């Protein structure tokens, strides 16, 4: 229906949570703000303490999907958002360049498909390898005196920020997992064709992924970029 507001399909992904009480508290806060999809990667046991902390969100725990690895959990997610209390202050360190929570909450309506909000371990957070697989990194502003938040508190703040925003109708169809996979396959081929330095290749691909993530690349922009890369490769092959 014209004028109807749309909300993206969110998936809360907890990577190796160590404490069952935190999983239960996350389930409760998800229910508070109408988020239904919980993915757990190598979690601790879902025990009585977990259900006790979940209160009335026991059905959400029952329906939670459990995965043996992060790669399996994100296999069908179109857009991934890492969360971390550690960010980079240097422009060249693209891996941990973060986006502001308020800006993210206001602009996420431009994304279609499945959006994964990824939260790391209570004691260590997310590994660099996991963050590199995400399109954006999100940082919740906290005091320099003590940056790290409790897992369930982090989830609650992010979900609250998303919940209170009034989403406008989507006018742009953003690209999903399949398009991004194809784009980076072609980009990788182009970098090989131009003999791009191997030691710079990974960080360059992360930088481009962050740029695309912050701009919420549309279908039209995707096809334009793909056409540019394809024509460049064709030109090189004809030499």
Task: Outline the structure in words.
This protein is an alpha/beta fold and 239 residues long. It folds into two domains: 9-164, Alpha/beta knot (3-Layer(aba) Sandwich); 177-237, no CATH class. Helices cover 46% and strands 13% of the residues. The chain has a seven-stranded parallel sheet with strand order 3-2-1-6-4-7-5. Strand 1 (9-15), helix 1 and strand 2 form a beta-alpha-beta unit. The longest helix has 19 residues, at 219-237. The protein is elongated.
Give the arrangement of secondary structure elements.
Elements: E1 9-15, H1 20-32, E2 37-41, H2 48-54, H3 58-62, E3 65-67, H4 70-73, E4 79-83, E5 99-100, H5 101-107, E6 114-119, H6 128-132, E7 136-139, H7 151-164, H8 177-193, H9 198-215, H10 219-237
Parallel strand pairs: 1-2, 1-6, 2-3, 4-6, 4-7, 5-7
Helix pairs in contact: 1-2, 1-7, 8-10
Describe the structure concisely.
It contains ten helices and seven strands.
Number of domains: 2
For the biggest sheet, the summary is: 7 strands, parallel
CATH class of the largest domain: Alpha Beta
Write down the overall mean pLDDT. Answer: 85
Structural class: alpha/beta
Q: What is the percentage of strand-forming residues? A: 5-15%
Global outline:
elongated
* Total helical elements: 10
Number of strands: 7
Instruction: Find the CATH superfamily of the largest domain.
Output: SPOUT methyltransferase, trefoil knot domain
Computed Rg: 19 Å
Task: Report how far apart the termini are.
Answer: 52 Å
């Amino acid at each position: 229906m014209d004028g109807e507001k749309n909300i993206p399909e969110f998936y809360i992904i907890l990577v190796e949570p160590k404490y069952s009480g935190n999983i239960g508290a996350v389930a409760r806060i998800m229910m508070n703000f109408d988020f239904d999809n919980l993915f757990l990667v190598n979690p601790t046991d879902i025990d009585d303490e977990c259900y006790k902390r979940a209160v009335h969100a026991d059905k959400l725990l029952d329906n939670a999907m459990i995965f043996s690895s992060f790669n399996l959990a994100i296999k069908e997610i179109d857009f991934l958002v890492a969360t971390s209390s550690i960010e980079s202050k240097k422009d060249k360190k693209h891996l941990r360049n973060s986006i502001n929570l308020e800006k993210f909450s206001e602009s996420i309506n431009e994304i279609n498909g499945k959006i994964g909000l990824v939260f790391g371990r209570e004691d260590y957070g997310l590994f660099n390898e996991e963050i590199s697989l995400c399109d954006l990194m999100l940082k919740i502003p906290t005091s320099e005196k003590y940056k790290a938040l409790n897992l369930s508190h982090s989830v609650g703040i992010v979900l609250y920020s998303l919940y209170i925003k009034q989403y406008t109708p989507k006018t742009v169809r953003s690209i999903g997992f399949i398009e991004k996979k194809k784009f980076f396959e072609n980009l990788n081929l182009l970098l090989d064709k131009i003999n791009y330095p191997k030691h710079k290749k990974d960080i360059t691909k992360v930088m481009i992924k962050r740029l695309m993530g912050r701009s919420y690349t549309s279908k039209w922009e995707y096809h334009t970029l793909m056409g540019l890369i394809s024509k460049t490769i064709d030109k090189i092959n004809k030499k």
